[in-house]
Design goal:
About 80% of the residues lie in helices and about 0% in strands. By secondary structure, it is mainly alpha-helical. The longest helix is centred in the first third of the chain and has 36 residues, at about 30-65.
Length: about 250
């Protein structure tokens, strides 16, 4: 049969019929695979968000330090990690971390879950570089007289940051921080490239075993959408209950 036999008559369109079988991803072992992947994704996101936020705070403070070597170190950190792809950083920590980490740390990682740890390290370091710049912008928006008043009251630079400047800066930077948290949760899908069995990895496995790629990746899409909506909702509640109450 030639190609002409498969061509629909003039004026008609060839309709491809696809039988959707959602039971593939809503029951049985393939559903359990996706649930297992969701748990790993939630762990990656939760640890990554907390770690990236704390590290970003430190880098932001160092970037604004009066000591030039600390500023240079923070600037180098920001320029390097903001301008290299996350996937490259994941591969670096997975394939090259044994060269820079202490042997005891490498042994411990190899005896636990090295793939997961490498992905978490890369996500934290990569995202913290962006969070640091957002927090620094928030710090710069605080009137400099507040820092001067804190220093004249006897606070050190770090104490002034801790008790006076950073609490206000973090409240101001909530919207951009939400975007960074969402990006981290979505970027966690890249962990599949080093064998971390998160949602995207499990969806790929389901597709490989069932050839139901549409159902598998639709389920993965719904998971990431739900995760993004949850993070946004929680931050909106924080903004209404905490930030607005504080302003009032």
């Amino acid at each position: 049969m030639g190609a002409a036999a498969l061509r629909p008559p003039d004026g008609e369109f060839l309709v491809l019929h696809y039988n959707f079988d959602w039971s593939v991803v809503t029951s049985g072992k393939y559903f359990e695979w996706l649930v297992s992947g969701l748990k790993v994704t939630l762990e990656l996101s939760a640890i990554g968000i907390v770690g990236a936020f704390l590290l970003g705070l430190v880098i932001a403070v160092l970037k604004m330090s009066h000591y030039r070597p600390l500023r240079w170190m923070a600037s180098a950190y920001l320029e390097f990690f903001r301008n290299t792809p996350l996937l490259v950083q994941i591969f670096f920590w997975y394939f090259g971390s044994y060269k820079i980490l202490p042997m005891a740390v490498n042994d411990w990682l190899n005896n636990t879950n090295f793939e997961f740890a490498a992905a978490v390290i890369a996500l934290i370091i990569y995202t913290s570089a962006f969070i640091a710049e957002d927090i620094r912008s928030g710090i710069l928006s605080i009137p400099k007289e507040q820092m001067e008043a804190a220093r004249s009251a006897g606070f050190s630079y770090l104490r002034s940051m801790q008790y006076i400047i950073l609490p206000q800066a973090v409240r101001i930077t909530v919207p951009p921080l939400v975007n960074q948290f969402l990006n981290l949760a979505k970027n966690s899908s890249l962990a599949m490239t080093i064998g971390v069995m998160e949602v995207t990895y499990q969806a790929r496995q389901v597709e490989s075993y069932t050839f139901k790629g549409f159902e598998a990746f639709t389920a993965a899409t719904v998971v990431y959408l739900g995760l993004s909506v949850t993070i946004t909702t929680l931050m909106d509640l924080y903004n209404k209950k905490v930030l607005n109450a504080h302003r009032a």
